Amino acid sequence: VTNGGKTTLAEKLKKMLPNCDIISQDDFFKPESEVETDERGFKLYDVLDALYMDEMVKSIRNWMKNPASSGLVTEDPQDACNNLKYTDDVHILIVEGFLLYNYEPLNELWDRRYFLTLPYEVCKRRRSTRVYQPADTPGYFDGHVWPMYLKYKNELEKSPCNVVYLDGTKSQEDLLSFVYSDIIQELKKLRE
User: Fold this and answer.
1) What is the mean pLDDT of each run of 10 residues along the chain (192 residues)?
2) Domain ranges (residues) in the chain
3) CB 188 within 8 A of CB 24
4) What CATH superfamily classification does 6-69+87-187 receive?
5) Which residues pair with 96 in a beta bridge?
6) What is each CA distance from 10 to 72, 95, 155, 159, 167, in whole angstroms?
7) Which residues of 23-37 are buried (b: 16+ CB within 10 A; e: fewer)?
8) Which pathway does the database say it acts in (predicted)?
9) 89 carries an active-site annotation
10) Which of 26, 49, 111, 167 is catalytic?
11) Residue 90 per-residue DSSP state
């Protein structure tokens, strides 16, 4: 969901996990001139066609081939990963975005899937405090953003993939703690 805390969560996890990189779907938006406009004059940014998805898949696959020399900036984790021993060979890629699980070429790549949700009122309020380039036009949230979120969420709920739904109204600390613990458990399983 837009303004659900995806980027914030990803950035905080990156600081806590070993050899962790982030690829953000927002980096793959097409220029405004290439984004379709509907009959109401809304730029259709909340659809897959507004993104260079093939380029995103290529970036992810390139990282997977050689994560240690991916060119992405990796910081030493603040949490020194006391929960994990010998993490030099562990590389984690967080891919964050709003239309990740509805794009079939990506579905075979995920080890874990998290989906942040928000109620309409909270989402609309958060969205109204953000400045976008280009700016949201009047009625854009109700006319395009929210309906597209509901459409893709509905599609996801009907798909057979494993997704952990997260309540975006919870505190950032609670969300971070839950996802971090879940990732640590997954990494421990890999070590067994």
Assistant:
1) 95 93 96 94 94 96 84 49 58 94 90 95 95 88 96 91 93 97 89 74
2) 6-69+87-187
3) no
4) P-loop containing nucleotide triphosphate hydrolases (3.40.50.300)
5) 24
6) 14, 8, 24, 24, 15
7) bebeebeeeeeebee
8) Cofactor biosynthesis; NAD(+) biosynthesis
9) no
10) 26
11) -
